[in-house]
């Protein structure tokens, strides 16, 4: 990457009063260029609080949409409009409306990995950081419909004992991790703690030492007395942890752990988006007004 590109990003950012937000799954050069790197919850919080006029989201489209929903008067840019989330695409507003008709009394909880239209159909949103707190905030006698991640839903059900109806969605990156792959790593690194994301399948989460969101994994590794960790989440996160904890040994739970959607964002595309102001994310106001309620309810109880 040329120095000119980095200098251009820095000066154009100042000129626009822009903030660059990046998810932990972004490539190292994007993480190093961003003003803030975090998980889905932290990115939503930053978008809601920032004084910047322009928010550039280095992540996937639902993250940029969440920023727009929470900060409607700001310009929100996504450097590559093709960066989407296959799990978010597994539920549409129309399909959800049909499901809701079958469960008319259910509280509908949606994972943040959903489109604005789907959020508009839900009662409350959650991320992997606060899903347990969100579910615990729902009165015991209420039925819960959880969309779209069946693995996160199952994990929260295991933790809280709350029976839920799950949507059959999943993250294609985390869902393929098997217990055998984890065991292979464990055989190579017998002293390592196994720390996985709740998007992993139940056989993996039930046998892990720790299950946490990306920021939760980061904090756990930072604070732990242990020195070695087998991490079950996307490989971009390795850079984040290794930078924060250079003295610890971190191993990926499987060799291939890449979300190609996240990798759509490059420094060249980031520079271009700041130059051309494309691709601007818009959410129709009628959808936004409904979707913001589910995000605001979540942010009010997020730990
Ligand atoms: P968190 O950022 O909430 O840990 O979720 C991971 C993820 O898959 C984002 O797409
Ligand atoms: Fe979606 Fe999974 Fe990629 Fe996250 S890692 S953006 S959940 S496909």
Automatic annotation (TrEMBL):
GO cellular component, one term: cytosol
GO molecular function, one term: metal ion binding
SUPFAM superfamilies membership: NadA-like
EC number(s) stated in the UniProt entry for this protein: 2.5.1.72
Described purpose of this protein according to its UniProt entry: Catalyzes the condensation of iminoaspartate with dihydroxyacetone phosphate to form quinolinate.
Cofactor note: Binds 1 [4Fe-4S] cluster per subunit.
Names of required cofactors: [4Fe-4S] cluster
GO-annotated biological processes: 'de novo' NAD+ biosynthetic process from L-aspartate
Binding residues for [4Fe-4S] cluster: 85, 171, 259
Organism: Candidatus Syntrophocurvum alkaliphilum
Protein name as catalogued: Quinolinate synthase
Residue sites binding iminosuccinate per the record: 23, 40, 111-113, 128, 197-199, 214
Catalytic activity field: iminosuccinate + dihydroxyacetone phosphate = quinolinate + phosphate + 2 H2O + H(+)
Gene from which this protein is expressed: nadA
Enzyme class, spelled out: transferase
Pathway stated in the Swiss-Prot or TrEMBL entry: Cofactor biosynthesis; NAD(+) biosynthesis; quinolinate from iminoaspartate: step 1/1
Location(s) in or outside the cell: Cytoplasm
Keywords for the protein's UniProt record, in alphabetical order: 4Fe-4S, Cytoplasm, Iron, Iron-sulfur, Metal-binding, Pyridine nucleotide biosynthesis, Transferase
């Amino acid at each position: 990457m040329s120095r000119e590109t980095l200098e251009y990003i820095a000066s154009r950012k100042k000129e626009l009063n822009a903030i660059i937000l990046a998810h932990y799954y972004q490539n190292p050069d994007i993480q190093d260029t961003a003003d803030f790197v975090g998980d889905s919850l932290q990115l939503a919080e930053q978008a809601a609080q920032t004084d910047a006029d322009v928010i550039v989201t280095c992540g996937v489209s639902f993250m940029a949409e969440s920023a727009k929903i929470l900060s409607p008067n700001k310009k929100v840019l996504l450097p590559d409009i093709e960066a989407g989330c296959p799990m978010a695409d597994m539920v549409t507003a129309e399909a959800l409306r049909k499901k809701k008709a079958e469960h008319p009394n259910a509280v509908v909880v949606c994972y943040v990995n959903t489109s604005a239209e789907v959020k508009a159909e839900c009662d409350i949103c959650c991320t992997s950081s606060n899903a347990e707190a969100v579910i615990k905030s729902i009165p015991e006698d209420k039925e819960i419909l959880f969309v779209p991640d069946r693995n996160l839903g199952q994990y929260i059900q295991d933790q809280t004992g709350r029976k839920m109806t799950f949507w059959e969605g999943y993250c294609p990156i985390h869902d393929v991790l098997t217990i055998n792959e984890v065991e292979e790593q464990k055989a190579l690194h017998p002293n390592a703690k196994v720390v996985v994301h709740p998007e992993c399948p139940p056989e993996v989460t039930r046998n892990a030492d720790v299950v946490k969101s990306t920021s939760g994994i980061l904090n756990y590794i930072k604070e732990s007395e242990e020195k070695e960790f087998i991490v079950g989440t996307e490989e971009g996160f390795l850079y984040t942890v290794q930078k924060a904890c250079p003295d610890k040994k971190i191993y990926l739970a499987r060799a291939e752990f890449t979300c190609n959607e996240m990798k759509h964002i490059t420094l060249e595309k980031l520079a271009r988006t700041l130059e051309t102001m494309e691709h601007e994310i818009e959410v129709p106001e009628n959808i936004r007004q409904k979707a913001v309620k589910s995000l605001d309810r979540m942010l009010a109880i997020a730990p």
